[in-house]
């Protein structure tokens, strides 16, 4: 029976890793911190021991050693929606890999009082920097009024004159989706838009309009929804689509509801009308039919956000806008229109 089994499970320490790898604990520390003067064979041995023992560097230990909080504050507006929630989880994962903890405060409906409380709570926890996942314009208005002087990175779809911003390029994703529909023969493409206080919704709508204008096609008045599948369902079940042969929905949930509503009316997808969404929800591939959609790489977004947060902590105060390019995933919900 191993020592660990007799004493019960304990988190392995740097000394356990050193013993396993046959090196000193200082060597393990140098490997963890990327020290260049380490033999490749030694580095590989230490990394193998780290993996075998499932060792994770303690952010508490690092905080005690460096006299730093090693925590990032994250203020999340609209946490129940897929985009903000996925962004938070990706940022938490990236932070853990760098030995940082994350303190998150969620805000519903952009309420000013909640924003105030969140900023105060995160500041009193002594976080080193602030990341604001701000899908709505209303949330940023509050942030501008209550600057806490912390290095701040904002995740939103549009550039900002005050803060360094990071986002998935929503406009580019919409352009790619609509250009694909045009390329397979569609000439009348309706847009089921998201709430206009949301930056992502505005950027996706603009990308839809840009793609149509570039192709010399008419822009049908968009239909503004609320992100929910219920809204898509009611619209698909009750409204006349005229001569539109395709719908670009601003998210997969509205696309799902739309497909349900259309099916109840006896309309076939994609034979009678094509549908395309945004997000690539984990279940989108299992819709009937599987949904063509714009995929966002939230893992890459979280890693990019963390790099810029650490740069801001290090004193980089430059204001610019970094983007992650989305990818169109073509499935069975789109096809050329019937002649």
From TrEMBL:
A single Gene Ontology molecular function, please?
Answer: transcription cis-regulatory region binding
> What's the domain of life for this entry?
Bacteria
Enumerate the SUPFAM superfamilies for this protein. Answer: lambda repressor-like DNA-binding domains, Periplasmic binding protein-like I
- Which residue intervals define the domain HTH lacI-type in the entry? 12-66
Q: Which UniProt keywords apply?
A: DNA-binding, Transcription, Transcription regulation
PANTHER family the UniProt entry points to: HTH-TYPE TRANSCRIPTIONAL REGULATOR GALS (PTHR30146:SF109), LACI-RELATED TRANSCRIPTIONAL REPRESSOR (PTHR30146)
What is the designated name of this protein?
Transcriptional regulator
Source organism of this protein record:
Microbacterium dextranolyticum
């Amino acid at each position: 029976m191993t020592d660990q089994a007799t004493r019960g499970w304990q988190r392995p320490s740097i000394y356990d890793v050193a013993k396993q790898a046959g090196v000193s604990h200082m060597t393990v520390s140098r490997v963890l911190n990327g020290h260049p003067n380490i033999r490749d064979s030694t580095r590989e041995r230490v990394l193998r021991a780290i993996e075998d023992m499932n060792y994770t560097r303690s952010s508490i230990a690092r905080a005690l050693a460096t006299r730093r909080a090693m925590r990032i504050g994250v203020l999340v507006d609209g946490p129940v929606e897929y985009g903000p929630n996925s962004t938070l989880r990706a940022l938490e994962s990236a932070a853990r890999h760098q030995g940082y903890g994350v303190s998150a405060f969620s805000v519903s409906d952009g309420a000013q009082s909640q924003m105030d409380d969140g900023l105060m709570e995160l500041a009193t926890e002594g976080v080193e920097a602030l990341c604001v996942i701000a899908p709505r314009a209303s949330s940023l208005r509050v942030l501008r009024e209550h600057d806490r002087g912390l290095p701040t990175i904002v995740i939103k779809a549009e550039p900002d004159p005050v803060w360094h911003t990071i986002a998935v390029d929503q406009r580019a994703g919409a352009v790619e989706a609509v250009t694909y529909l045009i390329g397979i023969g569609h000439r009348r493409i309706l847009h089921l838009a998201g709430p206009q206080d949301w930056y992502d919704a505005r950027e996706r709508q603009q990308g839809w309009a840009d793609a149509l204008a570039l192709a010399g096609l008419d822009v049908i008045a968009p239909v503004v929804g609320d992100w929910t599948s219920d809204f898509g369902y009611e619209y698909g079940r009750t409204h006349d689509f005229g001569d539109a042969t395709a719908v670009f929905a601003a998210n997969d949930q509205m696309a799902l509801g739309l497909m349900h509503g259309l099916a109840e009316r006896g309309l076939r997808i994609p034979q009678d009308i094509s549908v395309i969404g945004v997000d690539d929800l984990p279940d989108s591939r299992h819709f009937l039919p599987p949904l063509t959609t714009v995929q966002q790489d939230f893992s890459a977004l979280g890693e990019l956000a963390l790099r810029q947060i650490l740069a801001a902590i290090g004193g980089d105060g430059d204001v610019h806008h970094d983007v992650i390019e989305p990818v169109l995933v073509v499935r069975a919900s789109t096809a050329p229109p019937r002649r």
